[in-house]
Amino acid sequence: MAPTAAQLSWLRRLLFLLALLPLARVVWLGTEGRLGANPIETITRASGDWTLYFLCFTLAITPLRRLTGQQWLLKLRRMLGLFCFFYASLHFLCFLWFDHFFDLAEMWKDVKKRPFITMGFSAFVLLIPLAITSTAAMQRRLGRNWARLHRLIYLIAVLAIVHFWWMRAGKNNFGEPIVLGTIVALLLGVRLVFRWQAARATARSLAVELSAKDPG
Q1: How far apart are CA 186 and CA 192, in angstroms?
Q2: Looking at the 3D structure of the chain, how many domains does it have?
Q3: Which of 45, 63, 92, 205 has the smallest C-beta neighbourhood within 10 Å, fewest atoms?
Q4: Is 200 a member of any domain?
Q5: pTM to 2 decimal places
Q6: What does residue 21 show for φ and ψ, rounded to 5 degrees?
Q7: By C-alpha distance, which of 57, 124, 52, 56 is closest to 89?
């Protein structure tokens, strides 16, 4: 059963607060001096991890909606996507600030030199237009082009996983990349199944229509 407008409003508020908890935890650990031996790495890793988690949450909305028939879930997708962009922005800020002290020229050299950074930077840049056009007004203005633009999320997901995989490869730590890569692959794969089913249904409907027009 779909929630009422009031219940959905409270659910959004709760989701908003929950989505800020990872940031609040890092801030609290920082004030307590409990970010470990390398606080910069801890902050950078946490922001990157939560970018991927929110990317998965966002991608999960459509399959959940299709499988459960709960259309109201789509009303949560924009907030999840914006929090993905929020944590991606924090992750990029850590890279620009802590690694390069806002030296854009040096940052760009690093982007071109190290493939895993190239993948992550590309994913972040592609997220920007999705965040900018996430409003209902932009959706109406762009029409069908909005859906085409927002399909970039699939490419972003692949780039983000490659970035994560190559980053952990340097430390031979493939546990999390395998888990998150599998989740993303399943979330993208189920979309292919949905499209295949839709194409079959369309073909079957067309065949029935043609048969009715030409019975002999």
Answers
A1: 10
A2: 1
A3: 205
A4: no
A5: 0.92
A6: -60, -40
A7: 124
